[in-house]
Amino acid sequence: MAEWFNLLHKAVAAEGSQAAVGRKLDYSTTAISQVLSGTYKGSTEAIAAKVLEIYGGKRVEEKIPEGFMKDAKGRLVPIGAIKERDLLCDDLVKGIVKRAKGLSDTVRVFKEQVAGDIDAFVQLSGERYGVRMGGAKGNLSIISFDGKYKVLRAVSDHIEPDERIDIAKQLFDECVREWSEGARVEIKALVMDAFNVDKKGKVSLSNLLRLRSINIDDDKWRRAMDALNDSLQVIGSSVHIRVYERIGATDRYELIVTTKLSEV
User: Which runs of E-coded beta strand occur in the chain?
Assistant: First the structure.
């Protein structure tokens, strides 16, 4: 077994949890769990290097001679030869980065705690009815007893069309050509907009979904719509947490914070 993998197992035992190890390695608890279980889908080279660096004593501290700074090309430059503006800029950027890293750690801990707390609440709620909850986590809304605060867990799917979108486009184009005399201008415009591509060569999902709302009693149009619907595939999903506070005695809630918990 690889040295880094053994170190990772020992690190979890020493730190007391996968979450603690994840924070030190700058990886999510999910990623650590998947690596340990052998289900991590990406390359493990980066995480292996990080494990060896943090837990294997492989970190190499670069020593820069006193009175020098290294520039963007890796060259040593005497501090006296650096413009005052560049020194001030360097201090500013590094100070901001330091605070940003601290904030990033705080946010990561918040995400892990919130995700764990909500999952535990859902599990406990299910057990009260003799149901053990599991599987995919869906949309959820929980409200404080006084109704002042609301927490939403929202799951949004990432949808992309596959190769069948070309079949749908051809059928829609044929419909428009065949109806050229009597077709409504609005429908022609919707078909054209739906299959326009952006700079990355992708069609607009919102335009495709708008096209699906048109119901026309025509065999070719129905086949085109079937091809369109079949082409839209869920390729992943994101889980967001949104925290709200109710404004006074109204029914309106104001957003406090929103954050992405995970993406699959």
Answer: 68-70, 76-78, 140-143, 149-161, 232-246, 253-263
Please give the Cα distance from 106 to 99 (Å, whole number): 11
pLDDT of 60: 43
Q: Using CB atoms within 10 Å of the CB of residue 144, give its burial: 0 to 12 exposed, 13 to 18 middle, 19+ buried.
A: exposed
**Which CA distances in Å does 27 have to 9, 102, 112, 137?**
15, 15, 11, 21
What is d(CA 79, CA 207) in angstroms, rounded to the nearest whole number? 56
Report the distance separating Cα 51 and Cα 55, nearest Å.
6
Q: What is the pLDDT of residues 36-55, one digit of tens each?
A: 988 887 788 888 888 888 88
In this predicted model, what pLDDT tens digit does every residue of 229-259 receive, in sequence order? Answer: 999 988 888 889 999 999 988 989 999 999 8
Q: Which residue has the tokens 């006074």?
A: 248
Residue 197 and residue 173 in contact, taking contact as beta carbons nearer than 8 Å? no
Strand partners of residue 156: 238
Length of the chain, in residues: 264
Termini Cα distance of the chain? 28
How far is Cα 63 from Cα 67, in angstroms, rounded to an integer?
12
One-letter amino acid for residue 192 of the chain? M
Between 137 and 97, the higher pLDDT residue: 97
Among 31, 28, 34, which Cα is nearest to 109's?
28
